[in-house]
Amino acid sequence: MQYRRHRLGKACPQNSGIRFCGRMVTIMTMSMVADEIEALTAIYEDDWCVVDEANRIYCIAITHHNEQDKTKDLKICLQICLPPEYPNAAPPVYQINAPWLKDAERQTVVTTLEQVCSENSGECVLYLLFEQLREYLLDRAQKAEQVDVNSSSHHDSSSLSSDLHSRLAFPSATDCEIPAIKHGEPITDRRSTFQAHLAAPISTAQQVTQVRRMLLENRKIANATHNILAYRIYCEDRGTFLQDCDNDGEAAAGPRLLHLLEILDVQNVMVVVSRWYGGIMLGPDRFKHINNAARNILDEHGYIQKNEGRSKKKGKQKSR
């Protein structure tokens, strides 16, 4: 299927334009991009997601489905930021999100996408990039199937073990009650967006697994560059805390988020902060935004106030 860029119906001066992100963008360029986005929305439907329309940040999930075994589905999420000069003078800025990709494979994908951009300089290339990813997944899946055929006996035994492990590690939704999930207000800085999600009350690690799975059923959250997680559960029978965290690729973010929960002395809560990377590195500011998003949602739903009251009560008891 060949994607064609639509032409404007009316003539428009090339030098007429408006200011976008501090730079002059021609009306012709904006129309080209608008046509491209409209076409992609029609082609990819639910796989295509608008993260921040004002800053032209989008993401797409490209999936190769394995009809025999869904656990072998291959998925790459691509987050795209279109600079003001796109497509005439600059390629799209993108980030690949696929934890299963090894470094060498990731570099192969990056090189391939860069070649597509180079060969189609000045043109709308998003469709070409997406279809290149689809071809890569198809090729990789075919190679994996060939390996499976060559070692079918070993595969059969390991599949049984894998299925048993899956049922033990990931209980069904009926095994535990899933608490309510609330979503905080997004924080945006230099095209990166942060949004916190709160689940409470949490009393078991199984609930953490189920909440995480439920969050990832949301297409926008699943396509986030990172979903940083931390939870803290008070075990009354032992007088201790069951707690853990996950960076999801954002180095050191998980422990920092868990440390915030400890400082605020919150109990029986799970917080996930989604980050959609906008193409500009934020440095240490990203940790500030992650923690602020988490603090805001905890405060909004009364957890900080509750714990401040509990801390004061503890202080009075100690002073007696």
UniProtKB/TrEMBL annotation:
It comes from the Eukaryota. It is found in: Cytoplasm. It holds the Pfam family Impact_N. Transmembrane segments: none annotated. InterPro entries: Impact, Impact_N, Impact_N_sf, Ribosomal_Su5_D2-typ_SF, RWD_dom, UBQ-conjugating_enzyme/RWD, UPF0029_Impact_CS. Residues 35-140 form the RWD domain. Keywords: Cytoplasm, Repressor, Stress response, Translation regulation. The keyword Transmembrane does not apply. GO terms for cellular component: cytoplasm. GO terms for biological process: GCN2-mediated signaling; regulation of translational initiation. The keyword Transit peptide does not apply. Belongs to the IMPACT family. This is Protein IMPACT-like. It comes from Acanthaster planci (Crown-of-thorns starfish).
